[in-house]
Each structure stands twice: as C-alpha cells, then as structure tokens.
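Reviewer comment 2.1 asked that we show a complete input and output for one of the modelled complexes. We chose the adenine case, as it is the one discussed in the main text.
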Amino acid sequence: MGLAARFTVNKMRFDILTLFPEMFPGYLSQSILNKSINRGLVEIHVHNLRDWTTDRHQKMDDRPFGGGPGMILMVEPVVRCVREVQTMSDTPGQVILLTPQGQTWDQTKVEELAEAKTRYILLCGRYEGFDQRVIDILNPLEISIGDFVLNGGEVAAMVLVDSLVRMIPGVLGDEMSSWDDSFSRGNRLLEYPQYTRPREFEGREVPSTLLGGNHAAIERWRKQKSLENTRIRRSDLLPDDEKTDP
Ligand code: ADE
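Response of the prediction step:
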C-alpha cells in the first residue's frame, strides 16, 4: 500500500502548552511548517500555562514536599489548562508530556501516532518536572526525544511537530519523499550519498553509475550504498539477513 493510502490524515492540530510561548513563533514561521499552516494542513495554537493560574502572582511552581532542589510545576493550573484546551476543538486529542522519563521518540512512533491521531496537546515541562498528579490524572503519553536532559520540553515539542507534520500527505512537495527517508516504513536503512553539479570538484568525481542513465544500475548502487552506510554507522538497523558481511 502506498503512503497516501496508509496515511489518511489530511490535517493536524497541535496545542502547545508552555511557560515560554515566545520560543515558538520564529520556528513556526519557517519553511515547510509555515507553508503547511498557510495551506490549512496544520493548525498550531500556543498557550501560556500561566494564563490558567488564578492567584495574583500567577504562580505556576512550588518547592517539592519532602525537600530537595528545584521547583515543581503545580497540578492545579496544568490540569485546568489541559482540560480547557481539550474543549477548544471537536476531539480532545492525544495529550503528550515531554519528559526525559518518557518513551524514546523514533520514526516508528511518528508513523503510529500520525496514523492514530489528528490532534495533539503537547505539554512542555520546566524546572524539576510536574507534580506526579498531573500524570496520574491526565494519563498522557510520556515522550523523550533522547537520553539527555534539556532545559525544558519546548525544543522536544518542536521536534514532535516537525516530524509529525511531514507525515501529512501533501506537506512535502513529493508525497513519496517522506517514504524514502532514513528510518521510515519504506526504508529502515540510512540514506545513500547524493550528488549534484558540478561533476567534479577539487578532484572528487561524482560516481559514474549516477551519470550513466541506467536506472536499474542506479537503483542497485543506491541500495548497496545504503546498506554499506548502515553497516558502518548503525548496524543495529540492519535486517537480520543483512547482519553478516556479504
Ligand atoms: N525535557 C527535558 N529533557 C527532555 C527530553 N530529553 N525529551 C523530552 N522532553 C524533555
């Protein structure tokens, strides 16, 4: 089945909940994302968590019970914010909490989620994290973008938006181009090397197979380079029948 047939979603909505909404406009106004928003394929709403506080000082965080360093994001404004934002569209959407404690984000998860949902509520943490009751009450999908600690979930939220949006048919110029990406469903290998003009630069020539116009030979060359690249850099990605040297 082709990509367009598998991915029936034709519009996504993201609601990003953050203490730093001003981090997003620059990123959202660029390139593919901006075009997708203008074409009505993607809607992104950024909400300031602080708007859901009720006290005069708009207090969002407090010291941990039991002591210890840092501040904890308070359960009340966070839960109120998520519940209200859920009512802003006809589906409540998938709540996703960005945290280094979550499941690791990878292309398989991108594809699964893009198929399963069209609306995502991304909850960005700061400080030492959320009061545990945020997780117990909202039961979010907890996602980490890797085994390192960021200063907050905002950059991770951008990573999720960026990778999910590419799954909407029509967002990329050529619908098949996300199909061929490294790690995606059509190809779990790394990519083959690509070249453009000039044919020679500082003594380095473009491989002759790519200049010959023999499409079957080009396909074979690319497949072989893709395997070679994967074997050298990421042998864990190789299918079992390719794990031993040829
Ligand atoms: N917040 C802090 N570190 C993070 C990570 N690695 N992934 C997602 N959210 C985070």
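The chain is about 30% helix and 15% strand. We note this here for comparison with the apo prediction described in Section 3.2.
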